[in-house]
Each structure stands twice: as structure tokens, then as C-alpha cells.
Design a protein that fits this description.
This protein is α+β, with helices and mostly antiparallel strands and 560 residues long. Helix content is 38%, strand content 11%.
């Protein structure tokens, strides 16, 4: 192995999940010192933590939902706008980072090869062994995570055959011969490798980090834990079983999701819908399985309405607004919903008001005006909503962006949260055995219907009549309900783009807004209007691998 191979790791001194590493490392440390110094050795892994995302938004705090029917952006120069309007190309693809992910796989594999012998706790061999085992579990989880990010972004069909990405399970150590020999592995082999790494992590990681224990205490919060490994396995198997791939069984996906649910208990933790700052910006809410968090105001400034000195970069669509249920649990277009098109913001469920800011709603003690000519419109500000709606989800009202007293607010990024596990289970169980058959593994017994009931109950929907109605219609009808529950529960969390693809759904829905006109008597009229038309081609169910890798000899996905 060549000396000074850690030149590319200099950022380990800058940040980590808990600022564990504080060093003046300048990149000149040789191999012997790295692997004999516990600070440097652990820093190789901490660098992989540092590289994890820390925001649900992507480019310039614009959400990925703006490439789907959930939202649009008003930043017409952004790659998200360009990609979402049919110009998705390998050279402007922002949905993956090939070089970054593979660099982290190299870091992780180097640690697995050399890092386990570092003296992490010299005075107590037992504690040293525990630390090594925990770090090893973290390494397997992180390797599974980055391999999954690559597979999700770059897996695809080559000559009609579903292929994965080049698996990297051993350190290359700048060996150019090894680089030149790299080829794409099968999709099945990639799934198998990720699941294998998750299983190894499950054997080694603690369920939680609590108390004052040196190895497993709350000071280690932010590191991978047992539940996170189960959650990743659940997500991967759900995708692999989905119609676009069909490389795993729904039974395996259901089992993995229920295994993950078993780690957290038989019900979801409550959310105080009247104090969303407490939830959306909490560092340690019980809903969160694994997260990173940051403190800045640029995230809020980008997405607040103009009346709060924001740029409204992410505009929720009317399509999404219409997907939310009424407080009685019925869809807005159901004859029993009680929905009044002349009062479109009344009587909706709590998740709607927690996700979307509508005309007349109070936000930061200001009444939002999205009617034609109102304060928060494009007629008044260039950077304003294009749909008549603003983003509420993840927005901390405690954050100030007025330029004079910019109070900083925390916002977190959840790699996994509990609701996803229940939705994963509901989908897999319904596809396997239908809505009502109860499945039990390891303590918790649920049906797909039970899982959705828990999701809806936490959202304040107590009436079960509509759920019962749809479940009685069977698997196909309940599938559509599950998919809509997933849409509204996980909106603006980076799922919709991938969900539409793995379901082989229509990618090209019209994206609509709500045009609001104030009448002479100060009442309002409402009209749904076209805002954007998605323009994805069929081959765009899969993304492109970078051209640089094609030039090196890797086969590109079909169509690109």
C-alpha cells in the first residue's frame, strides 16, 4: 500500500457525527501512523459519516420532489428544474455522486482491512474489543449504505438485462490494475451484498445509544445502530421486490420491515401537530432512527415565503395538495368526504397543514397571500410560489431571515424514520397476502391494514370507515391507498422520485397549481391550472452512469 494514501481524507478533521475527531491532520500522515493511532484510524470511518447527506433538499436547498408531480421550483437555472423538464443527462445528473460514494467505499474497506488493530482503549482489552466490534458494525452498515446509494442511482438495464454497479468490497489501494479490471456486477449480486453487509451490521451494533456507557452510551448518538441496519435492509428488499426490478420476494421485504418494526415497538411515537418546530427540527425525536442535523438559515431562507424574507424555491403542487385526506379519512373527491371546492383549505387532515402553507394561513405570524396580486405572489416578487402553495414541512418558524436578527434554527435529515418502516411493511404485506392477513415475526403481529391504520391514527384520522371500505375491495384497491399514504406521509423526504420509478408509474403527469382570485366581496375563486409538464422518456426509469466511467469501459444503461 502506498504511503500518504490518506491525502484525500483531510476533511476528517473538519466534522463528524459528534465532532469525535479534532485534529490538525494535514494529509501527510503515513500508513503506519494512521493505523497505529486510534484517532486517525477511527477518522477514516468518521469521514464516511461526514459524507452522509445532512438535508432533505438537494441543489441550493431545492427538494427532489420538484422533479416529480409533488412540486416545482422557481429556480429555472437549477439542474432540478432542467432534469425535471426532460433534459436529464449524464453530465447534469445530481441524483448521485459516483466518485464520492466510491471514495467512501474505499475508506470503509481500508478500515476493515487495517483499522481493527488500532489501540482504541489500551488500558482495558475488553473495552477495546467492544469498540472494535461496534466500529466494525458501523463499517458494514456504511458500506451497505453507500453501495445502495450507487445501486439506486446507477443500476439499470444493459441490452435489456438488469445490471447493478461494480461492487467494491476490498480496498483497491491505488492499484491501477484493479481499477482497469472493474466491471458491473448483476443487480441480484448487488442486492445480496448489501443485505449481507446489513446482516453483519445487525450482529454487531447496539439497538440504541443510551446512558453513560463508554462504548454504547448516548454520547455515541448519531452513529449507526441496530435499527438503522434493519431499516436499510427493509428499504433495499422493498425496492428489489418492486415491479421495476422483481429480484426479491414480497415475503422477504415484509419480513425485513417487520423485523425493523420489532426493534421500536408496536406503535408509532406521537407527533405534536401544534408544535411542528419541536418535531421537524428536533435532534432526538423518537420518530428518528438515524439522522444528521445542521444549524443554518440558508435552508429556511430558500424556502420561506417572501413575506418571511424567503425565496419560495420549492412550491408544493396542487396534485399533492389534492392527495391529502380529509380529517374524516376520506379522499377529497369521495362523496362522503365533505370537501367544499369553494373552501378548499378547510376540514383537511393534520398532515396537510403540517406540509403545505396555503393562502390565508398564518406563517410566522403573517397571513400568507397567494391570490392573484397578493403579497406572496410572482406579481409582487420574482422568487415566489408558482403553484399557490408554499412549503411548510421542515420549515422552522423559529428561524429568522430578516437580515437583522437572523436566529439560527436546527434542521435534521433522517436517513430513516419509523413511519417508513410501517409503510414498507404495509406495501410488502399487501402484495404478498393482501390487506387483512396478519403476519408475525419476532413479537409484533400486523396486517397491511393494521400498519396503515397506525399511520393514519397518528395523523389524527380516527375514523376507519374509508380504510375498511378500501380493504374490503382487495389487494389492488388497497395498493393504491398505500401508495397515496406513502406520498403524503413521506413527501419532501426524497422518496417520491424513486417510488414512481420502482412502481413503473407514469412519470409524466401534468403538474398543476391553484390559481386564486379575490372577488369584489373579498371572497375567493379557485381554478386548477397547468404549471409544468414532466417530460421523461421510458429509459429514464433508470439513471445514467457518468460518461467518465463509460470511457473507462463500463457499459452505459440503455437509452443514455
Amino acid at each position: 500500500m502506498k504511503k500518504h494514501f490518506l491525502l484525500f481524507l483531510f476533511i476528517i478533521c473538519l466534522s463528524s457525527c459528534q465532532d469525535y475527531l479534532e485534529t490538525d491532520f494535514d494529509g501527510s500522515v503515513d500508513d503506519e501512523m494512521v493505523w497505529s493511532n486510534p484517532k486517525y484510524a477511527e477518522g477514516v470511518l468518521l469521514n464516511a459519516y461526514h459524507a452522509l447527506p445532512n438535508s432533505f433538499a438537494l441543489e441550493d436547498h431545492i427538494f427532489m420532489d420538484c422533479m416529480t408531480d409533488n412540486a416545482v421550483t422557481n429556480d429555472y437555472s437549477s439542474s432540478i428544474f432542467i432534469n425535471g423538464n426532460g433534459a436529464w443527462r449524464a453530465e447534469n445528473n445530481i441524483l448521485g455522486d459516483w466518485n464520492k460514494y466510491y471514495a467512501q467505499l474505499e475508506n470503509i474497506n481500508l478500515w476493515l482491512k487495517y483499522g481493527q488493530t488500532a489501540p482504541y482503549y489500551l488500558s482495558d482489552k475488553g473495552l477495546n474489543t467492544q469498540i472494535v466490534m461496534r466500529l466494525k458494525g458501523e463499517a458494514y452498515f456504511l458500506r451497505a449504505w453507500y453501495t445502495w446509494q450507487l445501486l439506486q442511482a446507477y443500476g439499470g438495464k444493459v441490452d435489456g438485462v438488469l445490471m447493478g454497479i461494480p461492487l467494491q468490497t476490498k480496498a483497491l489501494e491505488n492499484n491501477t490494475d484493479k481499477y482497469e479490471a472493474i466491471e458491473r456486477d448483476t443487480y441480484e449480486d448487488c442486492i445480496s451484498q448489501i443485505v449481507s453487509d446489513c446482516n453483519k451490521a445487525i450482529e454487531l451494533l447496539p439497538p440504541t445509544y443510551e446512558g453513560t456507557d463508554l462504548v454504547f452510551g448516548e454520547d455515541q448518538t448519531g452513529r449507526a445502530n441496530l435499527t438503522a441496519a434493519f431499516a436499510l435492509k427493509s428499504r433495499v428488499l422493498l425496492y428489489a421486490a418492486s415491479p421495476l426490478f422483481e429480484k426479491e420476494s414480497w415475503s422477504a421485504a415484509a419480513r425485513a420491515a417487520l423485523d425493523a418494526i420489532n426493534q421500536k415497538g408496536e406503535s408509532l411515537p406521537g407527533i405534536k401537530w401544534g408544535n411542528l418546530d419541536k418535531y421537524y427540527n428536533s435532534q432526538n425525536h423518537n420518530e428518528i432512527i438515524l439522522r444528521k442535523f445542521t444549524r443554518n438559515n440558508s435552508f429556511f431562507r430558500a424556502n420561506f415565503p417572501p413575506s418571511s424574507n424567503g425565496s419560495g424555491r420549492t412550491s408544493p403542487s396542487q396534485n399533492l395538495a389534492k392527495s391529502f385526506y380529509m380529517a374524516n379519512g376520506y379522499p377529497q373527491d369521495h362523496e362522503l368526504s365533505g370537501f367544499d371546492p369553494n373552501k378548499p383549505f378547510e376540514g383537511l387532515s393534520k398532515r396537510y397543514y403540517a406540509s403545505i402553507v396555503h393562502n390565508g394561513m398564518k406563517f410566522k405570524n403573517k397571513s400568507i397571500e397567494t391570490y392573484e396580486g397578493g403579497f406572496d405572489t410572482e406579481q409582487t416578487f420574482v422568487h415566489a410560489t408558482r403553484t399557490g402553495h408554499y412549503l411548510r414541512k421542515w420549515m422552522a418558524e423559529s428561524a429568522s431571515t430578516d437580515g437583522l436578527d437572523e436566529s439560527v434554527a436546527t434542521h435534521y435529515y433522517a436517513l430513516f424514520r419509523q413511519a417508513e418502516l410501517w409503510l414498507n411493511f404495509a406495501e410488502a404485506a399487501n402484495e404478498w397476502v393482501g390487506p387483512d392477513v396478519k403476519l408475525g415475526f419476532g413479537g409484533v403481529t400486523l396486517s397491511a391494514k393494521d400498519a396503515i391504520l397506525e399511520i393514519r391514527n397518528r395523523a389524527g384520522i380516527k375514523d376507519t370507515a374509508y380504510l375498511d371500505e378500501v380493504a374490503a375491495q382487495g389487494k389492488d384497491a388497497f395498493r393504491e391507498l398505500i401508495r397515496n399514504e406513502r406520498r403524503v406521509e413521506l413527501c419532501f423526504e426524497g422518496h417520491r422520485f424513486w417510488d414512481l420509478r420502482r412502481w413503473k408509474s407514469d412519470l409524466n403527469s401534468e403538474v398543476n397549481g391553484l390559481q386564486i382570485t379575490m372577488n369584489a366581496d373579498s371572497s375567493f375563486s379557485y381554478q386548477e391550472v397547468l404549471v409544468e409538464q414532466r417530460n421523461f422518456q421510458d429509459y429514464m426509469y433508470f439513471g445514467p452512469i457518468p460518461f467518465d466511467e463509460v470511457r473507462k469501459g463500463l457499459r452505459q444503461n440503455d437509452g443514455w
